[in-house]
Amino acid sequence: MSTTAPARPQPGAVRSKSQQQRRNRYVIAPLILLVVNVVLFLVFFVWPGALGLLYSFTDYRGVGKLNFVGLANFQKLFADSTFYAALGRTFVYTVLSVPLVYVCSLGVAALLVSKAVRGRTAAKIVIFLPWLISPIVVGVIWKWLFGQDFGFVNFIISTLGGAPVPWSSNGNLALAVVIFASAWGGTAFNMLLFVAALKNIPEALLEAAELDGANAWQRFLNVTLPGIAPTSFMVILLSTIHAMKEFAMIQALTNGGPGTENTLIVQYIYKTGFEQSKVGYASAASMVLMVVLLAIALIQLRFNRKKA
Amino acid sequence: MATAANLPPAVAEEAALGVEKAESAKGPRSGPGRGNREARAKASVPLTILMWLIASIYALPLLWFILSSFKPGSELFSYPLSMIPRDWTFQGFVDAWERVDFAQYFLNTATVAIVTTVLTVFFSACTGYALAKYNNKGTRLFFVCILATTMLPTEVILNPTFSVIRDLGLYNSLAGIIVPSILTATGVFMFRQFFLTVPDDLLHSARIDGASELAIFFRIMLPLSRPILFTLAIFSFQWRWNDYIWPLIVLNDPKWYTLQVALRSIVGAENIDWPVLLGASVISILPLVLVFFVFQKYVLNADVSAGLKD
User: Fold this and answer.
1) The domain that contains B272 carries what CATH number?
2) A235 to chain B, minimum CA–CA distance in Å?
3) ipTM rounded to 2 decimals
4) pLDDT tens digit string along A143-189?
5) Residue A52's closest chain B neighbor by CA?
């Protein structure tokens, strides 16, 4: 952070009146600028955060008084097989979708910065379009594309002589469609990050590697990849957190189906908290999710530090 | 998360554009290294084909979807399917607009997106500036607070957030979606990063000229930050237009529904009315596509490394 305002008066200096006035200016002006967001932060982050923690120790059902039940919610949660199923499915989804998003966005970005490719601006716009589309509509688009009876993909498969694939009645295939959809929707933004990072790699480094006889793949592996490490880290972290809280797209695409097989953790929280109004119980699940998110962030941060 | 905020400062828009122009204008050069440069600038047919193959794979789902929306209901489910509608019709759009009360949802969504965007841009600029140019305990603490919000997404605190909205009397109103969405870490970081790159000398000379702190911000700094302002405006508009989770928990009365909640209720039905759903979805995409094509340079050339996804 840059320092403009003097942090404290010089040692030994006499604090004059005008100095005092200026100090006040440096405190009051930022206060005025910050006040709205500070209030919003307190009301919409601190308050619900604290309330959530409080709820998780009660059997609150949305109305009435708070009844403290100690750790009962957590005990029940850790014995609840549907909770483990939702959490496990979320991990599977994250572990499969994040690498796919990473590879897609980096691959596309690498092609988009390569001067040997023609029509890059147009290609960039085409690949960027999914960013404009809401998670709900992304879900609808992929549901339509992979419809079991009248979907385009099954039509092509059966035209080529194959048997229609049960995209929505088989749990693993349904998850696969969700993963494709997440890669399709998630590429655009991460691609922008990678394009910016790739442009910052000094040309001289790549040329030097080329003169030393490194081929394209070796140059990518040994010069480009280390050069974009901070961006890679950020993309992986953001995509992981994003995947862990995936909700809207799945609501539209499979609604957690078939059955409840692909219910992810946020949907589980929504279902228990709002549809069954077990607020206390859902809040306990939320706390677990928050701890998981924090742990993921800390692990990745640590991993990143070690590499650097 | 700290890394995100410590990335290299955002390059001003003009600079980024300028570099790109200069690069494309750069013809084959003479002198040492010429061979290399020429080899790199030469078009590679396999790479170009690969790029366009990937681009068409990305385009296909959307293309199929949009073309389907022009088919009459009977053609949607008759084999063999054809990419191009045999019988073009706008009936799906008309039905969506009239039967499902889409005009109202459209208006609601536009209100939320526009009002929130204006407020988000303004208050993010204020906060980002304060965090960048005033260094005291308070601003440092608030910076950490903003960082923390990225770790506490709405999805994690659905129920308590609902209680807060209800207790504030914002339940079932558009204000209940707008007010909580004003503060975004991404917006604040984008502006903070930008103002860090503005030289302090500018501030000092304005102070010496006797300008008040707030006047410096409004008269000098805010106009300077125009590129970031536009970029964040488009981002924010996209976030709010496409937002699902806030409207879902805040709105109860269908007359306040936003497009996303309305679409979800169509796709979540027992028997999905596909012609209406296709028409409605395509209509819901249009405004963003329009905004994007007008302002695309602010998105595609933006150095978004300072911002995080929201």
Assistant:
1) 1.10.3720.10
2) 9
3) 0.86
4) 999 988 878 999 999 889 888 889 988 999 999 999 999 999 999 99
5) B160
- B39 assigned to some structural domain: no
Please name the residue that has the structure tokens 């970005």. Answer: A109
Residue among B59, B131, B155 whose CB faces A247 most closely:
B155
Global confidence as pTM:
0.85
Which CATH fold would you assign to the domain A72-307? MetI-like fold (1.10.3720)
Place of tokens 């990063």: B193
Q: CA–CA separation, B132 vs B207, rounded Å? A: 17
Cβ-defined contact of B203 to A4 (cutoff 8 Å): yes
Query: In terms of residue numbers, what domain contains B122?
Result: 97-306
The chain B residue lying nearest A44, using CA atoms, is B180
For residue A137, which residues of chain B lie inside 8 Å, CB to CB?
242, 263, 281, 284-285
For residue range A39-90, what is the model confidence (pLDDT) as tens digits? 999 999 999 999 999 999 999 888 888 888 989 999 999 999 999 999 999 9
Amino acid found at A94: T
B18 within 8 A of A93, measured Cβ to Cβ: no
Q: Do A5 and B7 touch (CB under 8 A)?
A: no
Q: Identify which of A41, A133, A135 has the shortest CB distance to residue B285.
A: A133
Does residue B78 fall inside a structural domain? no
Between the alpha carbon of residue A236 and those of residues A18, A98, A190, B83, the distances in Å are: 51, 7, 9, 36
Q: At what angle do helices B102-133 and B274-300 cross, to 10 degrees?
A: 20
Count of domains in chain B? 1
Q: Where are the domains of chain A?
A: 1-55, 72-307
Q: Is B14 inside any structural domain?
A: no
Is B285 a domain residue?
yes
